[in-house]
Amino acid sequence: MKIRRVVMAIAVVSTLGLSACGSADSGSSSDTSVAQLTLVPAGNVLDVRTAAEFAEGHVQGARNLDIQNGDFEKALESLDKNATYNVYCRSGNRSAAAVEMMRNAGFTKVVDLGASEEAAQALSLPIVTD
């Protein structure tokens, strides 16, 4: 497991290095992908699953904003639209919807990390329970 994390970290760093060298366009595209990730504070990781799912296990430092409880758009008002956010859920469906809602609300640096396991690997953070 430890070797796998090291290999994943090397792959992410290599991908970041190659994407930085391979692109002359430094425009402000809102279509941010995992390959374009930079290290961001854990406080900018959003888990958009239900509170019960979040309690079962979530990426360390993630904030729970349930996209299905009706308060998601209101909760977005308290977030900094200029910050980078990494969003995940159980399978990637809700995170994709959340990212679209965030972009429609004016957020420009939003990354859809898909499922919780993929998010943990991409961010090199463990999945924890409270």
From TrEMBL:
InterPro entries: Rhodanese-like_dom, Rhodanese-like_dom_sf, Thiosulfate_ST/Rhodanese-like. CDD domains: RHOD. Residues 39-129 form the Rhodanese domain. This is Unannotated protein.
